[in-house]
Structures are given as structure tokens and as C-alpha cells.
Amino acid sequence: MSENADYIQKQYYTIGEVANELELTTSQIRFWETEFKEVSPKKNRKGNRVYTPDDIIVLRRIHYLLKVKQYTINGAKEKLKQDHTEIDQQIQLQETLLKLKTFLLELKDSL
Fold first, then answer.
1. 91 domain residue, yes or no
2. From the centroid of its chain, how far is CA 56?
3. Which residue, 72, 59, 48, is CA-closest to 19?
4. Over residues 16-35, mean pLDDT
5. For position 19, which CATH number holds?
6. Total-model pTM
7. Taking a C-beta distance cutoff of 8 angstroms, is the pair 39, 58 a contact?
8. How far are the Cα atoms of 18, 62, 71 from residue 75, in angstroms, in the given order?
9. What is the mean pLDDT of residues 26-55?
10. Residue 110: inside a domain, yes or no?
11. Considering its fold, how many domains does the chain have in total?
12. What is the 3-state secondary structure (H, E, C) of 29-95?
């Protein structure tokens, strides 16, 4: 949601939108729902999962712990029980560095 933070946020997002934003598959998200009690999206009248911005923050933390820091599922569960401030700061730092890298690569290409 970092790029979309400048825009008005929606209240609910589909699983496809969340998967696209986090560069995951929908099946990974559904699996994480079974493994992490912190992920519990609501369902709309049709029975489709809908995610709030808070759900997406939790999924972003899980993604960071599993994919970037290479935690096991049990290790990520334990880490999520702790203070989230450190995780959120690390995620923000990673996103900032990726934006900087993209900018520098574009600058290099334009020279």
C-alpha cells in the first residue's frame, strides 16, 4: 500500500488486489490464513474474502518475516507475538531502499 498511500484508501480489498500488492499468489494468502490467527478477513455477501488495510499490514509483516528474513512459520508466529514496531520499521526501510534503487537505476539509464 506504500505507493497508494497518497490516494484515498478503500475500506476493503479483494484477495487478488492484496496478492498483487504484496507480489504473492492468492493460494499463499489463503494458506497463511490457516496458519496465522492474525489473518482473518471478512467475507462479503457472495462469500468472497475482503481485506481491510489492517489485514494487509499483518500480511505485509508475515511476508517480510517469511520471505525476506527467512523465518519458519513457527518462528514468524513467535515474532508476531512481540512488538511490531521493529518489524514495521524494517519493512519501511526496505521499501525506501527499493524506491531509491529504482530511482538510481532510472537515473543511470537516462545518462
1. no
2. 5
3. 59
4. 94
5. 1.10.1660.10
6. 0.77
7. yes
8. 23, 11, 6
9. 92
10. no
11. 1
12. HHHHHHHCCCCCCEECCCCCEEECHHHHHHHHHHHHHHHHCCCCHHHHHHHHHCCCHHHHHHHHHHH
